[in-house]
């Protein structure tokens, strides 16, 4: 009897999950076993994460259960500890167990995503918030509610303004969405607090470049800036943050901003575990791949999504987006099925369909199939596209119900108190 072959996929985010799903189809009835390892038994549907953080969506509706998404694959909820390419093994540890398990692979897929880029800014690790995990989203919402409660209780006007001032660093899609949604959240929530005026709730969006949302055309990003400023938001261009403290943040220009909440959305970095392998990477630690996703200088290691440098036929690196990770995952599954049958893998070619961003207050910006949109139309398109992209009708229905309820009823401003990032356990 032929020995069974094992494909091990590390990371069950957009790239890994869609790769496994397509592999299940392509290798049905064959001698291939698929094993996925991820520290969470869900993948985050990232486009909805910010809304999960501001309450227009239940946090658990912004994630997709791996066990319902996949049928035939084996899944281990575990932390990947090490990758031994020479011996074709991966070591992982299931949460709560002291034992480290090892598994041998015939093919290894690295789909480990990215982490938030944390430059050496004083106070960032201690006081900075992120928007990268479900815990981050819930922690930020809790933070906003704590700040509102504290602001309502103080008679010191300057302190109240600082408590109600959020600083968001990095104005690409995530930063712009976080800034727009939290500005809206704080101002709407202020109606429930007798001692807070909406005008006291403010967000400053800080961007190193001379415009926000650099992935869309300048006129679209200008529109976004105009809309955000008209709503009372401050946008500080051509600068960044040099220091973050408990009750203030200092810009590179020397300006001191009174704030207790700085959210770091300025870029991503390669997952640190890649550095522990001998696999080839670029200077920033991302895996270097052939156009068919095979990691350079290897036979049976493949990489997709944010953690990899995958290039298009013109030699340009595909951007780190969910849109690309999903297609890369599906294409890699086809390549793996081909290789297992003794055929050659094919290069990946994909042109971006466009970009969409929601900016809060039912406005958005978009460039889809070359057509530029802004305002309510872009926001509506954003919601429609992501609703349809959400896997499974039951989940789509839950999201649609959350959004409908949000249109007709006011949100509850209650702390969930479940997750607080390290260094943020106190109310500092
Ligand atoms: C807030 C936010 C909003 C975004 N919005 C959009 C959008 O609107 N449109 C869009 O196209 N893109 C968006 N993106 C980008 C998009 O989410 C990523 O490009 C995409 O998720 C990349 O897919 P991936 O499979 O490479 O990584 P991920 O989806 O991040 O998956 C990586 C997986 O690896 C797991 N993992 C990592 N290290 C380990 C380890 N050591 N052990 C075990 N498991 C591990 C993680 O738990 C995770 O599940 C957004 C990103 C963020 C943060």
Overview of the molecule:
The chain is α/β, with parallel strands linked by helices and 428 residues long. The protein has two domains: 5-114 and 270-340, FAD/NAD(P)-binding domain (3-Layer(bba) Sandwich); 124-268 and 354-408, FAD/NAD(P)-binding domain, CATH 3.50.50.100. The protein contains eleven helices and 24 strands. It has helices at residues 14-26, 49-54, 66-69, 124-127, 134-153, 157-163, 173-189, 218-230, 322-340, 376-389, 393-408, and strands spanning 5-10, 32-38, 42-44, 63-65, 74-84, 89-94, 101-104, 107-110, 115-116, 128-129, 165-169, 202-206, 234-236, 241-244, 248-251, 256-258, 261-264, 268-269, 287-288, 301-303, 308-309, 354-358, 364-368, 371-375. It has a seven-stranded mixed sheet, with helices on one face. Helix 7 links the parallel strand 11 and strand 12. The chain is elongated, with a radius of gyration of 22 Å. The N and C termini lie far apart (64 Å). Mean pLDDT is 93; it is low at 424-428. The structure holds flavin-adenine dinucleotide. Flavin-adenine dinucleotide binds at residues 11-16, 37-40, 43, 46-47, 49-50, 79-80, 111-113, 131-132, 173-174, 271, 273, 305-307, 320-323, 325.
């Amino acid at each position: 009897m032929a020995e069974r072959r094992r494909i091990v996929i590390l990371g069950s985010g957009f790239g890994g999950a869609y790769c496994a799903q397509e592999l299940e189809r392509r290798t049905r009835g064959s001698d291939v076993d698929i094993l996925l390892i991820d520290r969470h038994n869900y993948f985050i549907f990232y486009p909805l994460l910010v809304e999960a953080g501001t309450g227009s969506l239940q946090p658990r509706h912004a994630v997709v259960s791996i066990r319902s998404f996949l049928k035939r694959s084996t899944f281990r909820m575990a932390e990947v500890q090490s990758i031994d390419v020479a011996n074709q093994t991966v070591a992982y540890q299931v949460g709560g167990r002291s034992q480290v398990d090892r598994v041998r692979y015939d093919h290894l897929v690295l789909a480990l995503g990215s982490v938030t880029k944390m430059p050496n800014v004083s106070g960032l690790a201690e006081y900075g918030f992120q928007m990268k995990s479900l815990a981050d989203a819930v922690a930020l919402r809790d933070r906003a509610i704590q700040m509102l409660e504290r602001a309502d209780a103080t008679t010191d006007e300057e302190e109240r303004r600082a408590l109600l001032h959020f600083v968001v660093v990095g104005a690409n899609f995530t930063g712009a969405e976080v800034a727009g949604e939290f500005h809206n959240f704080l101002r709407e929530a202020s109606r429930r607090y007798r001692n807070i005026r909406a005008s006291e709730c403010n967000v400053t969006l800080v961007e190193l470049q001379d415009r926000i949302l650099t992935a869309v055309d300048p006129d679209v990003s200008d529109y976004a800036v105009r809309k955000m400023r008209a709503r009372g938001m401050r946008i500080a261009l051509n600068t960044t943050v040099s220091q973050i403290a408990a009750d203030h943040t200092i810009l590179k220009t020397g300006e001191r901003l009174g704030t207790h909440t700085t959210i770091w959305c300025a870029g991503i970095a390669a997952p640190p575990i890649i550095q522990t392998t001998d696999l080839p990477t670029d200077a920033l630690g991302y895996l270097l791949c052939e156009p068919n996703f095979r990691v350079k200088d290897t036979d049976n290691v493949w990489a997709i999504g944010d953690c990899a440098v995958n290039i298009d036929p013109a030699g340009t690196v595909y951007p780190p987006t969910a849109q690309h990770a999903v297609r890369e995952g599906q294409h890699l599954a086809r390549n793996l099925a081909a290789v297992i049958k003794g055929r050659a893998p094919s290069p990946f070619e994909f042109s971006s369909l466009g970009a969409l961003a929601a900016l809060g207050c039912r406005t958005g910006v978009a460039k889809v199939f070359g057509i530029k949109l802004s305002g309510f139309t872009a926001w509506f398109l954003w919601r429609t596209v992501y609703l349809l992209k959400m896997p499974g009708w039951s989940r789509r229905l839950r999201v649609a119900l959350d959004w409908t309820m949000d249109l007709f009823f006011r949100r509850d401003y209650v702390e969930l108190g479940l997750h607080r990032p390290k260094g943020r356990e106190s109310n500092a």
